Amino acid sequence: MSAYIVGVLVPLVFTLLLRNSKKEKKRGIPVDVGGEPGHALRNCRFTSLVSTSWEGISTLAELFEQSCKEHGDKYLLGTRQLISRETEVADNGRSFEKLHLGEYEWLTYGQAFETVCNFASGLAQLGHKKEERVAIFADTRAEWFVALQGCFRRNVTVVTIYASLGEEALCYSLNETEVTTVICGSKELKKLVDLSGQLDTVKHVICMDPDIPSTASSVEQSGRWKITSFADVQILGRENPVDADYPVSADVAVIMYTSGSTGLPKGVMMTHGNVLATVSAVMTIVPDLGSKDVYLAYLPLAHVLELAAENLIAGVGSAIGYGTPLTLTDTSSKIKRGTQGDASVLRPTVMASVPAILDRVRDGVRKKVDAKGGLSKKLFDLAYARRLSAINGSWFGAWGLEKLLWNLLVFSKVRAILGGRIRFILSGGAPLSADTQRFINICLGAPIGQGYGLTETCAGGTFSEVDDSSVGRVGAPLPCSFIKLIDWPEGGYLTSDSPMQRGEIVIAGPNVTVGYFKNEEKTKEVYKVDDKGMRWFYTGDVGQVHADGCLEIIDRKKDIVKLQHGEYVSLGKVEAALIVSPYVDNIMMHADPFHSYCVALVVASQPAVEEWAAKQGIVYNDFAELCEKEETVKEVYASIVKVGKNARLDKFEIPAKIKLLSYPWTSEAGLVTAALKIKREAIRKAFADDLARLYE
Length: 696
Known about the structure:
Blueprint: H1 2-24, E1 28-30, E2 39-43, H2 60-70, E3 75-89, E4 95-108, H3 109-125, E5 134-137, H4 142-153, E6 158-161, H5 167-176, E7 181-184, H6 186-194, E8 204-207, H7 216-221, E9 226-229, H8 230-239, E10 252-257, E11 267-271, H9 272-285, E12 294-297, H10 304-315, E13 319-322, H11 342-346, E14 350-353, H12 355-372, H13 374-391, H14 400-415, E15 424-427, H15 434-444, E16 448-452, E17 462-463, E18 476-477, E19 482-486, E20 501-508, E21 515-516, H16 520-526, E22 527-529, E23 535-545, E24 551-556, E25 560-562, E26 568-570, H17 571-578, E27 584-591, E28 598-604, H18 606-616, H19 623-628, H20 630-646, E29 657-661, H21 680-686, H22 688-694
Parallel strand pairs: 3-13, 5-6, 5-7, 6-10, 7-8, 8-9, 12-13, 12-14, 14-15, 15-16, 28-29
Antiparallel strand pairs: 1-2, 2-19, 3-4, 10-11, 11-21, 16-17, 17-18, 19-20, 20-23, 22-23, 23-24, 25-26, 27-28
Helix pairs in contact: 2-3, 3-4, 3-8, 9-10, 12-15, 13-14
């Protein structure tokens, strides 16, 4: 009997102690600041805002040079060797490009610094002046980072443009910033050639690839552009070295054009000091980040999350191995069957991600587990349930030796998908569902630091700490930021709300950017300087603060629609809840003030829907036909309703009708941003007829 009592009491005492310790730990604490009245917080570990973590370093150029001199012989930039490029034809006649990629080939810090110096000198020899701007228009790769650092070394402002940006937005960005030199890949050069007559100021084009498209010769022969290969610029610089022209902290390092969920993109002006502040703050949060770490880079460098991450990784002496979203894992769409994806070869220890990528990893794991079935599925489900109980503090036995056993028997196979060595993942760019966060955390055995920030704050805002096992929150203020909630009475969110204070999120600190390029009106609307000289950015997001000082995003002012009978629907909140359905690849909610219910456009997950159809014995010619079938729509809709109820959505928040779509929304089609966030207005226009029919 006594053994039984001990067996019950020990786990119970342990659980109570664990929960109490979590309650007692403060992560964000109130701070007295100026500006509009509200509830302001700072990071509890830092009494003043962090602007740099390196003594004597105030710019990204200085940080890079210092790190290269300190870590000279260590690997910095790695690129996979291309062995072959093949075309695979599917049963339906569609062809797909497949790549066979080899090992990583590396540049050390010393070699990378020499390459950057040569490129900077070559840029000057081409005739590019300091006061002129350079645009980098390419996918993420080592040359992108080299070009960025080369420009910084000459104090040249870099205009970053997503490789997937549409023609109108591309012309607008290049012309507005009066770019004279564009650095791009051969794929992007073809797009530029087609638009050459619409580009007013471009004089030089530097192509990262040796195979310059033949169509470019006509533009060069006309005398409008001088086209040079990336390698030739380096040779020119090596033969004609030029001294560095270092920037200062207040100089604009980057004009970053957002991919824009509405209208034309806005150019956010970031100083060296702005980006360095975020880099410095994140360094204090990620545990033991240093020269032993390997970072997998595959997100767009034109996105502030990736740009800040790579500058941080280079600043602490880690290695950066480049990949792409389409070659990330062994089963990625561009990887030749039987060969390895980027993660398997690189075996990274840290990586940044966006929710859409993590959702795919989760869905891929679940699909494999369900396909195996039998004992394998039962073992996985048991292991997952025990680890979940341990994290929630309700089962003592799933810690210690049992945890090691589950890791060995079950989760090691899941971890192999991303190389087997991941110890930390940063998720940003959009809200990460609690289901995905917990699933990835358990299966990969690594904490996910969910961050919150915007281009206008250089990705800096809040960041969840490594020992915070909660989900659905975005952490405490970064050491570079003050976070404040202010009342939004129209939406019903007040700092006097109980049990948690709520309101619009505004951010201040050295990471808050200068404003929008040539857009003073918009700048004045969302950037405000208080009586103490502190610059605040008004995000338009709505949050609530937990007792420990951590932030949770609960709404967005622009996404809230009032229905016919007065109920408010937060479209983004509902979408984040419903995308958990296994049948849903993407979803856009639509609410009309003249109706009492919502509807939704749903991009179907082809593998999940086809697997269901096969079990039902449904006959169809193609996936588009399958998505039109009444029984398919009913099945997907039932899943959405179930997920919505589990997420405790109100009845009016769950769509009354759906339109099932058979093809994905892509950034090339202008329906999602490069960070894979939906472009609500563009989708509304593209599917106006479908939305109208849902209200009939």
